């Protein structure tokens, strides 16, 4: 099946779109989806893009599938994957720069928004009566802002908040009698320990984010399989485990793994 051509084919660059300021673009997004975005960077959540695709092509994503309360990076990834899947479903040959968008950088998000504005204008032609569904408008009003992430840091430079100077100063001679003085060697030891703990925290957070991304990708695959009636029962059970909380009673994980093995063996043989 031939993929639908984008009409017109638009490169991901601001040179081919109308000259609109960031404020104009943001106002357009908010007026289109009844949103409350304050900055271009907030579009990294993918919510607005999914909602605008739903306006253009109803049911290409499904409003209930959009994580309108997305605040974390793995939730941004989930929404942007849905957005990309909509292009594939509609046979548009377009690759969404997910990795760049989800980082919340202004330039990457602004350039893509410029491209999408052109795409939206092209495919909304003749659809002047586009209206935001009530569910979408309500979700947009209640959507939280993405959590601000710290700037690029390295393990050597990133540290937890430093102790206040007053806590580490060597006591002056005028201090009251009986107070213990902190030696310079003790201060250095404490500072080194603090730096080591900061590095460990960064390492753990990086590992956490890595597994969040993997789980988000697995979640998208499982949901798509359910929609396509592929291993529906197994996928639903896997999703139950994925969404389980600490209070959820343990399920038959071992049985699920055993049921999965024949399917995996079949795919391997093929």
UniProtKB/TrEMBL annotation:
Compartment(s): Cytoplasm, Cytoskeleton
Major subcellular location class: cytoplasm
UniProt GO BP: cell division
Family matches, as InterPro entries: CH_dom, CH_dom_sf, EB1_C, EB1_C_sf, MAPRE
Listed GO MF terms: microtubule binding
Chain intervals for the UniProt region annotation (Disordered): 142-184
Signal sequence interval, chain numbering: none
Domain Calponin-homology (CH), first and last residues per copy: 19-121
Polar residues composition bias: residue spans: 172-184
Swiss-Prot/TrEMBL keywords: Cell cycle, Cell division, Cytoplasm, Cytoskeleton, Microtubule, Mitosis
Domain EB1 C-terminal stretches: 179-251
Matches recorded under CDD domains: CH_SF (cd00014)
GO terms under cellular component: microtubule
Cytoplasm listed as a keyword: yes
Sequence similarity: Belongs to the MAPRE family.
Protein name per Swiss-Prot or TrEMBL: Calponin-like protein
Gene: 101901582
């Amino acid at each position: 099946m031939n993929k639908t051509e984008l009409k017109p084919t638009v490169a991901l660059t601001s040179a081919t779109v109308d000259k609109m300021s960031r404020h104009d673009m943001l106002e357009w997004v908010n007026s289109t989806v009844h949103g409350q975005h304050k900055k271009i960077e907030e579009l990294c959540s993918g919510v607005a893009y999914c909602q605008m695709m739903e306006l253009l092509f109803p049911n290409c994503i499904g409003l209930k599938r959009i994580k309108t309360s997305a605040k974390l990076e793995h939730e941004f990834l989930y929404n942007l994957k849905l957005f990309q899947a909509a292009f594939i479903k509609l046979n548009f040959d377009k690759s969404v720069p997910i990795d760049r968008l989800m980082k919340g950088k202004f330039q990457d998000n602004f350039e893509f928004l410029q491209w999408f504005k052109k795409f939206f204008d092209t495919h909304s032609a003749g659809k002047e009566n586009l209206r935001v569904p009530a569910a979408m408008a309500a979700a947009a009003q209640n959507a939280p802002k993405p959590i601000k992430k710290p700037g690029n840091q390295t393990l050597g430079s990133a540290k937890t908040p430093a102790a206040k100077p007053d806590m580490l100063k060597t006591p002056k001679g005028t201090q009251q009698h009986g107070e213990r003085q902190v030696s310079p060697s003790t201060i250095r030891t404490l500072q080194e320990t603090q730096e080591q703990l900061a590095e460990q925290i960064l390492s753990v957070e990086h590992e956490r984010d890595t597994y969040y991304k993997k789980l988000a990708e697995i979640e998208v695959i499982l949901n798509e399989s359910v929609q396509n009636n592929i291993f529906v029962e197994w996928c639903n059970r896997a999703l139950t485990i994925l969404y389980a909380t600490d209070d959820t009673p343990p399920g038959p994980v071992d049985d699920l793994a055993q049921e999965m093995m024949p399917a995996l063996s079949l795919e391997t043989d093929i």
